[in-house]
Specification:
By secondary structure, this protein is of the alpha+beta class. It is built from eight helices and 14 strands.
Length: 285
């Protein structure tokens, strides 16, 4: 069984177009991906540059699409200035999200050991309604016309690496910025108004464990405004020849520090100040 699994991984890697960066070899990436999918912390690659990390990510996404389903959109990481400073960069990074990332709805029960290093974050999704997002630049009135839904979301990422490893920027890119699972709330229809745009920036997102608040942040915690995150990822993708298209889902980034999870816990993300927003709840078994 394990041999067939690794053969399938190598076939998937062979189908990925040659990357621009000097990746680790395909067999090493297959072993790395296999350990992650088996919920084990892999041995990190040595001195992985950001370019090589992106190369590993491209091949990893092709492998992960087998058990996790098609790529349905993208996520941002490192949207907090303090975290950016730690890695010595002044911008976010991106990964891909899968069908499985969006499969669960509020109230779902999830296995606590869903990943190698499972954590939970308060997040938010937007759905792209038409292309051309990258041309809107940072004009919020123009950006809002390119999305038709805002969706409260609890992301369930995988930090992957063992606690004694401090990941580099290349390491974070190599693990696809930790994208794994998530729990969606009820979608909110976008209103093309200055009031709706202002509410996105002013809203307060709080995270609660078993009824106890553990974090709180404003909408502005994501690059100054959630729409700024949409603008950044649209331009980043366009530069790589893959502009956003109608139907793409974007995970805008974390409004909370990553929280470890355990069986028996109930977590709630609450979005205050955004009309029609309902709590998102996840239970762990």
């Amino acid at each position: 069984m394990l041999r067939r699994f690794f053969v399938a991984l190598l076939i998937a890697l062979a189908l990925v177009p040659a990357a621009r960066a000097a990746c680790p070899d395909d067999a090493a990436i297959a072993r790395f991906a296999g350990q992650i999918l088996q919920r084990q912390s892999p041995t990190p690659f040595v001195a992985l540059s950001p370019a090589d990390g992106r190369c590993v990510q491209d091949k990893l996404v092709a492998i992960f699409a087998q058990p996790l389903g098609d790529v349905v959109g993208f996520k941002l990481g490192l949207t907090n200035p303090a975290i950016q400073q730690r890695f010595g960069i002044d911008h976010p990074i991106r990964g891909s999200i899968f069908h499985a990332t969006l499969r669960a709805s509020s109230g779902a029960e999830i296995e606590a050991r869903f990943a190698a290093v499972p954590v939970l974050e308060a997040d938010m999704l937007v759905r792209v309604s038409m292309g051309g997002v990258e041309t809107a630049l940072n004009d919020h009135a123009a950006l809002i016309r390119h999305i038709d839904q805002v969706i409260p979301f609890i992301e369930l990422p995988d930090l992957v690496y063992a606690p004694d490893h401090r990941p580099s920027l290349g390491d974070l890119l190599a693990i696809n910025v930790g994208a794994r699972l998530g729990v969606q709330g009820r979608p909110i229809a976008v209103t093309l108004s200055a009031d709706f745009i202002a509410a996105l920036g002013r809203m307060s997102i709080s995270l609660h464990q078993d009824g106890r608040e553990v974090s709180r942040a404003p909408g502005a915690a994501i690059l100054g405004h959630p729409l700024n995150a949409l603008a950044w990822i649209a331009r980043d993708l366009a530069r790589d020849g893959r502009p956003l298209r109608a139907g793409d889902i974007i995970s805008l980034g974390s409004f909370s520090p990553p929280q470890p999870v355990a069986a028996g816990q109930v977590w709630t993300a609450r979005y205050e100040g955004l009309d029609q927003a309902q709590d998102v709840v996840v239970r762990f078994r």
